[in-house]
Design brief:
Blueprint (H helix, E strand, L loop, with lengths): L2 H14 L5 E5 L5 H13 L3 E3 L7 H10 L8 H5 L3 E5 L15 E5 L5 H4 L4 E6 L6 H11 L6 H14 L8 H12 L5 H9 L5 H12 L2 E5 L2 E7 L4 H10 L4 E8 L2 E8 L1 H5 L4 H12 L2 E4 L3 E7 L2 H18 L6 H4 L1
Parallel strand pairs: 1-2, 1-3, 3-4, 4-5, 7-8
Antiparallel strand pairs: 6-7, 8-9, 9-11, 10-11
Helix pairs in contact: 2-3, 2-6, 2-7, 3-9, 6-7, 7-8, 7-9, 10-11, 13-14
The chain binds manganese (II) ion.
The site of manganese (II) ion (MN) has 6 residues, from loops.
Amino acid sequence: MDTGENETLLKIIEFLETDRKKVVLFHRNGDPDAVGSAVALSLCLPGITVSATGGVSSTAKNISSFLGLEFSEHTLEELEEFDLAIVLDTSSPSQLEIIPSIPKVVIDHHARNSAWEERGDVLIYYTDPEKRSCAEIIYYLMKLAGKKIPEKALTALLAGILTDTGHLTFAVPETLRTAAELLGKTDITIEDIHNALNTKGENVSKRIAKLKAAQRVRIEEFRGIIMAISEVNAFEGDAARALLMLGADVAWVGSSRKGGYRISARASSALIKKGFHLGKFLEGVGKEVNGQGGGHPGAAGLSGTGDAEAVLHICREKFKCWLREQNGNLSVSQVK
Ligand SMILES: [Mn+2]
């Protein structure tokens, strides 16, 4: 980093440390790099509000719930109340859901964009396209500012680096050095962060439903296709998806309640490529069993009055009929 660049960063630190009312903004559907950078800033410096206006991605949600943090969205009027916006990981103004007219400091790692330079309200526009993530810049900034970086901030920054580099696949030596330094300051491991990014903050009953679906599963292989059938009390859709992730090509999960049943099914993309459409299939079954069925090619449902077990049986037999109608064998090695 040359001295000119360091001067800019020192100026940024000055702005970050002012008593002004500050808000951090980032691109729509904020990813863990955007959210992680925002979290780290707000944890290292007092008086910074993180605004998730424009929403956050599911992995960003996962890591936030792992850290026990929640962010609110803001209206334009609310954002205008702040004195300074710190815009992170946002390559152009159009990526912001709402653009307040307050002064801005933009910190990014995408290619330089004249749209930022042309705005009269941007006090500093700093981007370093050599960096694989915005999190690395924030880490450098906080070190430069002599801030103590709390545990949660370290985790948030690592999550940003990991996701923006495809779990280090696209990392350059400098990324790895920074990641190593961060890891050296915490007991958190890459595995912990990987798990946190991929584990939804799901409630206990949903996770139990998925495990019960796996415990009760009946497996049938027919013409090279693996079917998984199970029953749960709730969360059929999540349970069906979980069975697919365990290796089934198609999963049927039913639940019975108050004289009625609900079936949720999931089919693998390989099966869809072979022409199978679960939504149409369950629509057809629905007509036969006097129920309501339909959905997407790979995710669909069916409900009606009666017994889940009986309808699951019909689904299974009809699916086998469909398999028989296909030319040749649909064995997994051919399908996938
Ligand atoms: Mn990024």
